[in-house]
Specification:
198 residues; mainly alpha; 0% strand
């Protein structure tokens, strides 16, 4: 008897489950239908929406006498291109002229420096101690920055210690003169009271 009752219970449970499943299916179908109806309504609304009326254009102005005719279409673009090319050419010409002037100035400076160094190096019996501070500044700056003067400097570099190019001109002067930067005086000028020349 127990086995029969168990079987009956199992059948009843399965029937209940089947009923529930069918109910869920029906409910899902109803929900899906409602969702689809809403989606279709939205699509219909979008389709049925009236297009906004286009703005009315302003009436065309009548060209007065002496006024140039407006260029339209392709010609308008061509004219802009021409104007742009003219502007670019003018800018290039200006930039080129300025660069040429700068190059000429640099050439002049280099030639002047070369002349100065050759004259100083050719002077016989001229010692570092007799040079003025301004002369030392110019010459040492040339030693540091001018690569083209390496041929003139070979003899001096063997006799004197010349540091690398990252050293300043003032430091170079101090090293050449064996004086401190505070006590270094310009030669051939009166020394103020209370100070001692190096």
């Amino acid at each position: 008897m127990d086995s029969n009752e168990d079987l009956i219970n199992i059948f009843e449970e399965t029937e209940n489950e089947i009923e529930l499943i069918e109910k869920e299916k029906k409910y899902n179908k109803i929900v899906k239908k409602k969702i689809m109806k809403k989606i279709i309504k939205k699509q219909n609304k979008k389709m049925n929406k009236k297009k906004k009326p286009s703005r009315k254009r302003r009436p065309r102005k009548v060209r007065k006498k002496g006024r140039p005719k407006k260029v339209r279409g392709k010609e308008k673009g061509k004219r802009r291109k021409r104007e742009g090319e003219k502007g670019r050419k003018g800018e290039k010409e200006k930039g080129g002229k300025e660069r040429e002037r700068e190059r000429e100035r640099e050439k002049g400076r280099i030639s002047n420096i070369n002349e100065y160094t050759t004259s100083k190096l050719n002077e016989e019996g001229r010692l570092w101690q007799n040079l003025t501070l301004s002369e030392l500044r110019i010459f040492i700056a040339m030693l540091i920055y001018m690569e083209s003067l390496s041929t003139h400097i070979k003899d001096i570099s063997q006799k004197h210690y010349i540091p690398s190019s990252n050293v300043s001109v003032d430091e170079m002067i101090v090293r050449f003169s064996d004086c401190s930067s505070h006590t270094f005086q310009i030669k051939n000028k009166p020394i103020p009271k209370g100070k001692v020349a190096c």
